[in-house]
Specification:
Largest sheet: 5 strands, antiparallel
Helix content: 25-40%
Number of helices: 7
Strand content: 15-25%
Number of strands: 10
Low-confidence stretches: 1-26
Radius of gyration: 21 Å
Structural class: alpha+beta
Number of domains: 2
Length: 243
């Protein structure tokens, strides 16, 4: 692909910044295979591991994109849910604000928290290309600024996020905070759409329970091993006393 002169002459620096418990990478728009991209990468797996000592299988991070799942997790891991809320809601808002095609600006990788806009640049004049880049870059920058303001710049989290982190992990049916390693399974039985992945999740759950490596739970209850079988245990409802 021929790179327009406007792009050739544009400074395209890459910025890197380290935050507590995170790997962060931000890039200004670049061209790859005829597509203009702009992105921010953040490793959520490390966030959960270091902040909460919590494990989620990589193929299940896409579940965070479902607002209904996030609502179920609000009281369990509030800081992480807020991370996804800010990005997902922000993408929807700026897509409408800038009149971008639906689905052009999206979260590409829910574990890496990699989000951005990409579009075909073939056939555009330099002026058209610069206008399109500016519009998308403004959209990506707005979401990035909201997200990183929420996280906190430098070596500390924002006070608001730190307050949510300090609430710890609340496992359904388990009194108080989680005091040991946790293994969060987004749904039970697993439903990834891939039978092999589902089988792998089931095998992982069974091994964690057999070896007592972690507290295994879902957004709605705990998983236990009874006579060699995995059993889902829903929390008991609290009895309400009549006035």
């Amino acid at each position: 692909m021929h790179t327009p002169r406007a792009i050739q002459e544009m400074p395209l620096p890459t910025y890197s910044l380290s935050l507590v418990c995170y790997e962060l990478y931000i890039s200004i728009p670049y061209i790859y295979n005829g597509v203009i991209r702009s992105r921010a990468d953040l490793r959520m797996m490390k966030a959960l591991k270091h902040s909460h000592n919590l494990w989620i299988r990589p193929e299940q991070y896409d579940k965070f994109l479902d607002q209904n799942i996030r609502k179920k997790l609000e009281k369990i891991i509030p800081a992480i849910v807020k991370d996804y809320d800010i990005v997902c809601n922000g993408i929807d808002e700026v897509t409408k604000k800038y009149g971008l095609p639906q689905g052009e600006f999206k979260l590409w990788d829910s574990d890496l928290m990699r989000f951005g806009a990409k579009f075909k640049a073939d056939g555009m004049s330099d002026e058209e290309l610069l206008k399109v880049i500016e519009q998308r870059f403004r959209a990506v920058s707005e979401v990035s600024f909201r997200f990183f303001s929420w996280l906190g710049f430098g070596t500390k989290f924002s006070p608001e996020r730190q307050a949510l982190l300090e609430k710890g992990v609340r496992v359904p049916g388990l009194p108080g905070r989680l005091r040991r390693s946790g293994f969060l399974v987004m749904d039970w039985p697993p439903n990834t759409g891939d039978p092999r992945k589902d089988e792998k999740i089931i095998a992982d759950v069974k091994e964690h329970l057999e070896r007592d490596w972690a507290e295994v739970f879902t957004p709605e209850g705990r998983l236990k091993l009874v006579n060699g079988e995995i059993v889902f245990v829903r929390p008991k409802r609290r009895k309400t006393t009549k006035p």
